[in-house]
Known about the structure:
The chain is of the alpha/beta class.
Amino acid sequence: MQLFVDTADTGQIAELAATGLVDGVTTNPSLVARTGRDFRDVITEITQLVPGPVSAEVTETSCEGMVTQGRELASIAGNVVVKVPLTWEGLQACHVLAGQDDPIDVNVTLCFSATQALLAAKAGARFVSPFIGRLDDIGQNGMALIRDVVDIYRSYPRTLKTEVLVASVRGPGHVLEAAKLGADAATVPPGVLRQLVAHPLTDKGLAAFLADWEKAKASAGSRS
Ligand code: E4P
């Protein structure tokens, strides 16, 4: 499963990318606004930090506007994936961008139902982003949506080639369940990515190994 980091903070991205564990980055207008920086500058810098897909979201809402803005965003770098919202206009824009002679990869975002995901795939999206945390927040089952979308796409492998990019991830449990269901990718906040490696028994075990090693060195030193 691919792991993307869900942030526009280039400091965090640089640090995490250096581990070799980051396959891509997703941003959205809220995340970029939080940096207080120029949108194009931020996306340009991210594309230089991570060679994998970098999702940059349009802020236009008409199909025409999204197509124009999407082409502009895609011109920043070859690894930009244009993110459009799951609206009729967004799906039409996806169809245009993905279907042009020189196709542009599209991530259809703000997906909250399996029928929406079906339409995103039919529109030619490279990724669909079901927001599981936001569904959980309103008492629905985000992971059930992932199961449905994975099942539907698997039933039509010749025609539905869209990758399921699990989004709005709140913790390691979401990543684990998404991986067990066979989701193609998950995009996770930096803090959650760091939590994936943490285990108290790893820390405790390492401390014990190092203490024993120091003791052995000290007693070897006192014998020589
Ligand atoms: C995905 O691409 C979105 O940026 C993100 O996962 C939204 O998550 P949130 O619900 O935590 O804002």
